[in-house]
Amino acid sequence: MKKIGFIGLGLMGRGMSMNLVKAGFPVTVWNRTASKMDPLVEAGAKAAASPKEVAAASDIIVSIVTDSSDVEAVILGSEGAIHGTSPGDIVIDMSTISPAVTKSINDKLGAKGVKMLDAPVSGGSIGARDGTLSIMVGGDDETFKECLPIFEAMGKTITHVGGNGMGQTVKLVNQILVGTSMLGVAEALMFAKKCGVDLEKCHAAVSGGAAGSWQLTNNGARLLKGDMEPGFKIKDYLKDLRLIMEAAADVKMPLVETSVVQQMYKSLEAEGLTQKGTQAVIKAVEKLAGETLV
Ligand code: NAP
Fold it and tell me: Which residue from 96, 227, 106 is spatially nearest to 163, judged by alpha carbons?
């Protein structure tokens, strides 16, 4: 069985790495805040002192940290995984980061004979815990096939979408759809409230029709309860919106609707709501409407 290294045990990484341990892979972990390694060590993983040490102990190194610069730090930094790799090893980065940065990391690993897949995920910490993530993979076919058993231990819908960087690009597509849909749900429900419609009945009536969506069913229901707790935090979505806008600028594509979404979420940042869930965009809509939803 391939030896797996796992870097980044945050909300997502802790569940994903645990599922690799449960699937029987030998796993070596590293996390910047060392205490987060304890539950993994209790479950049978080994703890390493640095990403470099993780790589030296592993054939396949998985990373899931926050942003582009964080992946650069754990893979390419002075104690980064690259310094512990051998030719033939594989790095799978599952963070959501810039497609352009992914490609440049791939080039540096490639110069050492190390293959890379970008494999960002959708499905949140619950999907990470339950092993039901959607995984969008970029990279060459042979490396993808070699890593499939690892993806199958962490996710349900695993799609090889193209070459290096394409996994990240498809994730950004996903994030455009998530945000435009979420703002649409908030605006539509606020309109219903202003017009005096019963919100529960309205939600039930439109959820099963052509306007139905994951955001309407799940985050729409949260809005009706006034629940702003995060499944996915605004702080992380603001990062993704920045990545989307950078990638759109690279291909000279104006994103009109996504720009409005970004400004609405920026107004929530200004109000200190970045730890709330993305459904809290209703707070910006309520300001425009001059009334609260619930
Ligand atoms: P998180 O809970 O904030 O965890 C971030 C992890 O990255 C922590 O282990 C953190 O270490 C580590 N880290 C960050 N910067 C680092 C650096 N410079 N050096 C070393 N370690 C660093 O975030 P998360 O929710 O797991 O998200 C991780 C990635 O998955 C992000 O790219 C996010 O966009 C993506 N994602 C998240 C969700 C979701 O619903 N949460 C869904 C899909 C995709 P410490 O423990 O020391 O802070």
Answer: 106
* % residues pLDDT > 70 (the chain): 100
Tell me, using a 6 A CB cutoff, whether residue 70 lines ligand 1. Answer: yes
* pTM confidence score: 0.96
- Provide the CATH number for the domain formed by 169-289 in this structure: 1.10.1040.10
Task: Please state the domain extents for the chain.
Answer: 4-163, 169-289
pLDDT at 42: 98
Q: DSSP letters of 43-103? A: HTPEE-SSHHHHHHT-SEEEE--SSHHHHHHHHHSTT-GGGG--TT-EEEE-S---HHHHH
Do the Cβ atoms of 135 and 121 come closer than 8 Å? yes
Ligand 1 atom 39 nearest Cα: 124
Report how far Cα 64 is from the mean position of its chain's Cα atoms: 9
Cα–Cα dist 9/63, whole Å: 9
CATH of domain 4-163: 3.40.50.720
Residue whose CA is at the smallest distance from ligand 1 atom 41:
124
74 lines ligand 1 (CB under 6 A): yes
Q: Is 155 in the pocket of ligand 1 (CB under 6 A)?
A: no
